[in-house]
Amino acid sequence: MSTKPLNLLTLLLLLTITYHATAHNITQILDSDPNLSLFNSYLSRTKLADDINSRTTVTVLAVTNSAMSALTSATSSLSAIKNILSLHVLLDYYDAKKLHGIKDGTVITTTLYQTTGQAHSQVGQLNITDAKGGVVKFGSAQPGAKLGPTYVKEIKQIPFTISVVEISAPIIVPELLTSGSGDVNITGVLDKAGCKTFAALITSSGVLKAYEDQMKSDKGITIFAPNDEAFKAKGVPDLSKLSNAEAVSLLQFHALASYAPIGTLKSSKGDLQTLAPAGKYGLTTSTAGDSVTLHTGVDSSRIATTLLDATPVAIYSVDSVLLPVALFGMSPSPAPAPESDTPTPAPAPTPTAETPTPAASPPAPPMESPSDAPSSDANSPEKAADEKSKNSAGDGNAPLLMVVIVSVASLVISVLH
User: Fold this and answer.
1) What single string gives the DSSP state of each residue in 77-126?
2) Separation between Cα atoms, residue 339 and residue 221, nearest integer Å
3) How many CB atoms lie within 10 A of CB 417?
4) Are 100 and 128 spatial neighbours (Cβ–Cβ below 8 Å)?
5) Which of 58, 129, 226, 269 has minimal CB crowding within 10 Å?
6) In Å, what is the CA distance from 112 to each residue of 71, 94, 117, 381?
7) pLDDT, one tens digit for every residue, the chain (417 residues)
8) Where are the transmembrane segments (predicted)?
């Protein structure tokens, strides 16, 4: 018997496993145990849940409500609690079997806190030690740090994708308890990061006060700061020609009316609410790997670096000035605007393609494109990317995988017959 059908069946099985493995929701997993409700609620409040759900390989060390009191009694700062809980998210897969079978008895593993850019030395790493006799201990990997919390039980495992286990107590690193967002100096952060032009604009326009007020609100704030080079880039409109009200709206457009760490931006769906007035100030995102791109309907900008992530404040540097539709109109298609009546293959889904002559007879589409085409084009490349990023938050690339699975299944059936 040929091995080809068997190989195809194996591929189909692997694709099916991948499809099921990519979908996980930490909130739903923890909802199954009421004793983990406090830990679960803090994952949601700090937006760590979004980051966990956006990752394909992760281990969560959960603690019960009574054990959480050791943390909540030590600090009331949501930012400090987020830092501590970030140490409980391991960027590797550890189930009971792996924890009880650690080679050489000890392993140093990376946590989510290491990805914040705030970790120094080994503060963002964790020491896991198999103390034998069924006891596994956890603690900071910093030199001289003591091991404390121990493994209790498994809660949920999706092999090699997500493992949730219970430990006896939170892993507390004292220096992380003192961090907080209480008195964030927004302009100080921007100046230090090479966003001095943006810092000067929000100060002179009075928008800085709006940022600070939003920062102190329950929802927090997210700021997208163009670097100094972005204001010198070719094609940037002359902002000096804007009225004072328009300039204020433009700067308000560079901030969300809520705290959104990178994991939240990756999984965002639909328009993000900015501080700008309601109207054509929509902002959407698309994701490619760990890179997040912002789309305005006029232009797009990649998030370059995280300048600050201190719940409930997030500040990012971006590569371009964000231009809202309300002030600058819809963008044309990403392809260069046509200069003649010659139809281009991409934006012409019309049935009149039967005439091979380069000068297409109906000139109507180019005439209407400056106003009408953007509304549909905005729903094509950018919207498609956004839909792709939406899928990655929960089901990964589920639609694509299902298409592949169905295709392979059809191929297997045809070969077997």
Assistant:
1) -HHHHHHHHHTTEESS---HHHHTT-GGGEEEEEBGGGGGS---TTTTEE
2) 43
3) 5
4) no
5) 269
6) 18, 15, 10, 32
7) 455 554 555 544 444 444 444 578 999 999 999 999 999 999 999 999 999 998 999 999 999 999 999 999 999 888 899 999 999 999 999 999 999 999 889 999 999 998 877 777 788 999 999 988 889 999 999 988 999 999 999 999 999 999 999 999 999 998 888 765 557 899 999 999 999 999 999 999 999 999 999 998 889 999 999 999 999 998 898 888 999 999 999 999 999 999 999 989 988 888 898 999 877 788 999 998 889 999 999 999 999 999 988 888 999 999 999 999 999 986 544 444 444 444 444 444 444 434 344 444 334 333 333 333 333 343 444 444 444 334 333 444 444 444 444 454 554 445 454
8) none
Is the distance from CB of 359 to CB of 342 less than 8 angstroms? yes
Instruction: Give the number of residues written for the chain.
Output: 417
- SS3 helix, strand, coil % of the chain, rounded to 5? 40, 20, 40
- Cβ neighbours of residue 151 under 8 Å, at least 6 residues apart? 96, 99, 135, 136, 137, 138, 165, 166, 167, 168
Tokens matching residue 13 = 């099985």
Rounded to whole angstroms, the Cα distance separating 61 from 58 reads 10
Looking at the DSSP assignment, which residues form a beta bridge with residue 300? Answer: 295
DSSP class of residue 245 equals H
